[in-house]
Structures are given as C-alpha cells and as structure tokens.
Specification:
Dipeptide-binding Protein, domain 3, alpha+beta, 7-stranded mixed β-sheet
C-alpha cells in the first residue's frame, strides 16, 4: 500500500512535467484566470478540432487518471457530482454537475447530494445514472486491488484509510444510496471542503457492471461516462479521437464540433511546426522562441492568439527533515542552514534565464488562483548577504547533495540555483536520476543517513483548487513521507486539521494561511516559482478557454 501511495504522488508531479514538456514552463504574469480566443459570430455545429497532447496518457479511466493529458480526455468524457468554474475573484469553485444540490450537517461530517434525474450513460450502456452508481464507482476507485494513484481524494470517506484504499470486505461504508437520486456520504472526520475536492476525475461516475462485463483494460481504452464526448479510438503514442456524444443529457451544453483529434506530439518543436502548417489548432512553443512567437504577423493580424494564463502549481525544492545536517536532528543550526538556502535561492535568474522571464516568483507554497491565496507568506525573502553571514558562521560545512530528475529544464534550473548557493558559501554537488530511480531514492530517504536525500527538486499541480491541497497532502505528518520531506510539526498539523473542520470560509482560509506560515518558517521546502503556461491557438476556433487547472471544455469550441 505504502509503495503504491508513494508512486502516485510522484506520478502527479510527473503531470507537471508533461504539461510543460519542452521547457515551456510558463507565461507572463497576467491577471486573467483563463485566456480566451476572440469568438465573434454565432457558434455553429460541425467540424473537427485538432488538439496537441504532450504525452501518451497513462490512463483515461477515472481509476487510472494520473496526469494532465489523461485528465484532459477524462474531463470531456466523464462527469461527477461537481465541476469547477471560476468565481468573480478568479478562484476555482465547485458547482453542481450531476448533483443538483448538496448540503452538509453542522460539523461537515455528513454530506447529502441530490442527483439530477435523466442523466444518461453514453452508448452502449445507455441507461440512467442513479445514486448506487456513485457507490459502486467510488468503491472501485478506492479498491486496493485497482491501485488508483489518486484515490486519496476519497480518503476522507468512512471505510477508507489515509492511503486512499478501503480495508476489509465492506468497502466504503460511508457511501449510501438513500434512493435513486439521493446519495449520503459520511466522512471519517469533519471536512468542510469535501465537495470542493470532488471535481477530480477519480470521483467521476462510471457504469461498473459494464466494466466488469468487458474488463478494466478494455474500458480504459474507451471509457463510458456521461460527458459531451466519447472515445472513438486510442492509438498509443499517436492520437486519441473523441466524437460528440449524440445523447448527451445536458442538451444546452452539447458539443458543437463533431470530433476532437488529440494528436500525441511530445516534442514542442514538432508541435510548433505542425501548428504553423495548420495541422493542429493548439501548440506549445519551443524554449527560446516565445518572444519570437509573440511577434509573428499571424498574432498581430488576429489569425493566432498567444495565450498566457496561470496554472495552479508551484515549483519548489524539498529538504529532508530527517537529514542530520539540514533537518530537524540538526536543531537550530539545521534551521539556519535551511533559511540560508531559501534566502540564496536565485529564483529571479531561474525565471529570467531559464523560463524566459515569464513565470512568477513564489512567495509561498500556495499559488495564485487558489481561493484564499495570499502573497508574501514566506518569512525568508531573497537576501544573499544574510545567507552569506549564516554560512560563514558554520565551520566545516560539508558538501550538500542536490538531486533532480533527469530533464534539460530541471538541469538548467539546478545549475542556476547552484550558482546562487555557492556564491554565499555553500558547496553544492548536483546529481540527476531517471524519474523512477529518483522517486525510489527519495522514498528510501526516511532514515536520513548518508545514502539519503538532502535537497531535491519537487513540485505540485493542484488536484483540487484549495489551499488544503497544497498543505495537507504535502506537509501534514501523516502524508509528508509521500512528498519526501518527512516534515513533522504538531502545530502545523493541528492548524490544518482545524481548518479542514471549520465551515466558515473566512475562518477556514485564515487557519490555512496560519498553517502555511508555520510550515514556511520551518523551511522544509524552498518555493521557487508559480507556473504560468504559454500556448498558441488558432482563431479559426471560437469559444476557446483554458482554466487554471489547464482543462479545456471541448464542448464549447466551434469552428468558424
């Protein structure tokens, strides 16, 4: 169980790499929460939208979705009780989808969802969705035999464990179908933002009896859900073709385009060439070419749009808190060294030199766009002179090991950071490892011995839009081993748990902010920057918008 749990965490971090394949890490710090192409005119039906994916998905079924590419497909084919929409502040909030409404009891430990009537599974299932389908789907997602890497989203439910899997034979005892259209969910503990987490694909509804009939592997190739699209064909490492669901229950939001051709093109240079030839309508841009792309005549004429939009993710370096030099065993000296590393981490050069000046310096672990976000949470601003004084006062400081997973972009970032750290007196040795090896070595670093990690590259892309998602699964002592910092502070833990149980929005967010400050003062991590993505889109397509979780509603697109 523990090994699987560690693996899914790493795979979610891998999603961030796939999103930014080809070093296109970010885009200018614009205020818009989404970027939309001009869509003058009246939407019309028909046509094909050509989308570029940066990797072959690991899975597109609710149980298996692990990274952004699979999520994009699942987002348009599967649906759950809630969906995410932008509110007036630019934050992502849960809104009713297959649930008409929901309410929680006084302490937010029991939720009752009222389901829409008449929602149909796509062909060949072609039957109405009832509450029992959610019972069955969520039990399937948390079945330890299925090994979902994202089932932790459902871990608060009674009958589940912190691992995200149920134990014994009774499954999720906290999920009950009161009648066909009423779902009651009892949690293991009060959690005020439980509904906010349910926009993740792992909480989608699927026809479990159909899956058992055809087999999970076959279902993953063409999952059946309730969304506006269905999967026609998936050719590994080539393309995934989605076609309009002719029987989509939400007729007012049915798709305009007949087909979405998701071409799998890992190299950003190839994507960019294909975009310029007109074979795809959406593309990343190779490193070093963003400024050139923005200045192209097609952008000036309005034929193309250079999209710059925020992403709910943070790039950071972790510190092993069990390390006898840098971690908690080193006491006050360890804290001083962690502060010095933070104050001499040259994020400005990372952003300007590596990221072409287009990402945003991180001043905390919670990124902009998360409801309740507050800038300036870290108490340790960039101050290399202060860091130099700390390092100079420590005799015989050994060489520090800094690890990152093998990737040209991560290497360049590590080298910039190395230069900043060495400029204040640290002696830094960089090491890179293939992704699987990297995760395995981090997972084996809990002892803090000579073979264990000291400082390592990490990052996080939101699974659900909440401060909780950047605090509880990353740094709570019951979870921190899965992000390899092994951080443990009872004050932080108590604040996070109190926040989870607080139903008043303002009070809850204030508690999360307090918890973030406590963690950042302990410095188990070094925030580097908040991601921004840069994508080029063809304005032959109307209705384009990409939200801060990088999801595109294909049903809103139309071909001019």
């Amino acid at each position: 169980m523990i090994k699987l749990r560690m693996k899914w965490r790493g795979l979610l971090v891998l999603a961030m790499l796939l999103v930014v394949a080809g070093l296109v890490f970010a885009a200018c710090g614009e205020e818009e929460a989404t970027t939309e192409n001009g869509d003058e005119g009246t939407p019309k039906a028909g046509g094909v939208y050509n989308f570029a994916m940066s990797a072959n998905p690991v899975a597109i079924d609710a149980v298996g979705v692990q990274e952004s590419e699979g999520w994009q497909v699942a987002h348009n084919c599967l649906e759950g009780l809630v969906a995410y929409e932008l509110d007036e502040t630019g934050g992502m909030q849960a809104v009713p989808k297959l649930a008409e409404s929901w309410e929680a009891n006084e302490d937010a430990s029991v939720y009752t969802f009222k389901l829409r009537q008449g929602v149909m599974f796509a062909a060949p299932v072609s039957r109405e969705v009832v509450a029992q389908d959610f019972v069955d789907s969520w039990n399937r997602s948390t079945d330890p035999d299925n090994g979902s890497y994202t089932s932790y989203v459902l871990a608060p439910i009674q009958g589940c464990t912190d691992s995200g899997y149920w134990e014994g034979k009774d499954g999720l005892t906290g999920v009950k179908a009161i009648d066909d259209y009423t779902l009651e969910v009892t949690l293991r503990y009060p959690f005020a933002e439980f509904a906010q987490t349910l926009g993740h694909p792992v909480a989608s509804v699927t026809p479990v009896e159909y899956i058992e009939k055809i087999g999970a592997k076959k279902f993953n190739r063409a999952p059946v859900g309730t969304g506006p699209f269905v999967v026609k064909e998936w050719k590994n490492n080539r393309y995934i073709t989605l076609v309009k669901n002719p029987d989509y229950w939400d007729t007012e939001n049915a798709a305009y385009v007949d087909e979405v051709n998701c071409q799998i093109i890992p190299e950003s240079s190839t994507q960019w060439l294909e975009f310029q030839k007109g074979t795809i309508d959406y593309s990343s841009v190779p490193p070093g070419q963003i400024a050139v792309a923005e200045a192209m005549p097609e952008v000036a004429s309005g034929e193309w749009t250079a999209n710059k939009l925020p992403e709910l993710s943070t790039y950071w370096y972790g510190i092993n808190m069990n390390n006898p030099i840098l971690g908690a065993p080193a006491g006050e000296q360890g804290l001083e060294l962690r502060k010095a590393l933070t104050m001499s981490a040259d994020a400005e050069n990372v952003i300007n030199v590596v990221n072409e000046g287009i990402s945003i310096p991180a001043t905390g672990i919670v990124p902009e766009g998360i409801p309740g976000y507050q800038a300036g949470q870290s108490p340790y601003a960039y101050d290399p002179e202060a860091a130099k004084e700390v390092v100079a006062g420590i005799a015989d400081l050994p060489t520090l090991q800094v690890w990152y997973n093998t990737d040209e972009g991560h290497q360049k970032i590590a080298e910039v950071l190395q230069a900043g750290w060495e400029a204040v007196g640290f002696d830094i040795e960089l090491s890179n490892y293939e992704w699987g090896t990297f995760l395995d070595m981090l997972a084996k670093s809990e002892k803090g011995d000579a073979k264990s990690s000291q400082v390592f590259r990490m990052g996080w892309i939101a699974d659900y839009p909440s401060m909780d998602n950047f605090l509880y699964p990353l740094f709570h002592s019951s979870q921190s081993q899965t992000m390899y910092t092994f951080y443990n502070n009872p004050e932080f833990d108590d604040l996070v748990i109190e926040a989870r149980q607080t139903t008043d929005d303002a009070q809850r967010r204030n508690l999360y902010l307090q918890a973030e400050k406590v963690m950042l003062e302990d410095a188990p991590c070094i925030p580097i920057y908040y991601y921004r993505v840069f994508r080029m889109t063809n304005n032959r397509v109307g209705g384009f918008a990409q939200d801060p979780m990088l999801q595109i509603d294909f049903n809103k697109l139309w071909i001019k």
